[in-house]
Amino acid sequence: QSYSHRLQHDMYFLTSTSRLNEQVVDKIILQLNRVYPQILTNEEAEKFRNPRASLHTRLSDLLKHLQKKGDRHCQEFYRALQINAEQLFNDLPSRKILKTPDPTEIDTDKEQYMLNDRGPVFFLACFSVAAGLALFWYCCNSDTKVVGRARRILGFSPIIIGRHVRNICMLYLEDISRD
């Protein structure tokens, strides 16, 4: 959507009462007068800053004038509005239309939440299943090298598990190795 169409769409919102005060309008006009390339000439800037005319009239005239000048001028107006009245710039109707998401587009934040909403119990259950399968595969493997490695690991672990548990595990491994 072109900036002049956006400005036409936002004109009523901008000119309604108490949206823009006199100081902000003057700052915008001065910025448009000082921007390179110059958007408003000195005479035009003085005309739109005339304190004898009402703010509503001056602002309406300014917006119509910018629409006649073209898209580049309207773009500079939006830039000046963003710099001088950011909250109002974010509340513009044309900005809300631009922010509206495409209904066919996937919302990645929502999708991320949907994948992670299972909680810690689900994580512990999955981890337990994976650990159980790994232990089952490790213990049921008929390779004798595995038993030797397990004996070495259990032999150096009296700190981790008690001596009685270690002795029981060692006896179990010796029984398995005899078979």
Summarize the structure.
With 179 residues, the chain is an all-alpha fold. Helix content is 73%, strand content 0%. The chain has a domain at 3-97: Death Domain, Fas (Orthogonal Bundle), CATH 1.10.533.
Name of the CATH homologous superfamily of the domain at 3-97: Death Domain, Fas
- Please count the helical segments: 11
Radius of gyration: 37 Å
- Spans of at least 5 consecutive residues whose pLDDT stays below 50 are 109-113
SSE-based structural type: mainly alpha
**Extended strand count:** 0
CATH architecture type of the domain at 3-97: Orthogonal Bundle
- CATH class of the domain at 3-97, named Mainly Alpha
Overall 3D shape: rod-shaped
Protein name: Caspase recruitment domain-containing protein 19
Keywords: Disulfide bond, Endoplasmic reticulum, Membrane, Mitochondrion, Transmembrane, Transmembrane helix
Organism: Tyrannus savana (Fork-tailed flycatcher)
InterPro entries: CARD, CARD19, CARD_BinCARD, DEATH-like_dom_sf
Description of the structure:
This protein has helices at residues 3-15, 22-34, 42-48, 55-69, 71-84, 86-90, 93-99, 108-115, 120-139, 144-155, 163-178. The model is unreliable at 109-113 (pLDDT under 50). It is mostly helical. It contains eleven helices and no strands. Helix 2 (22-34) runs antiparallel to helix 3, helix 4 (55-69) crosses helix 5 (71-84) and helix 10 (144-155) packs antiparallel against helix 11. It has a domain at 3-97: Death Domain, Fas (Orthogonal Bundle). It is a single-pass membrane protein. Associates with BCL10 by CARD-CARD interaction. Residues 1-96 form the CARD domain.
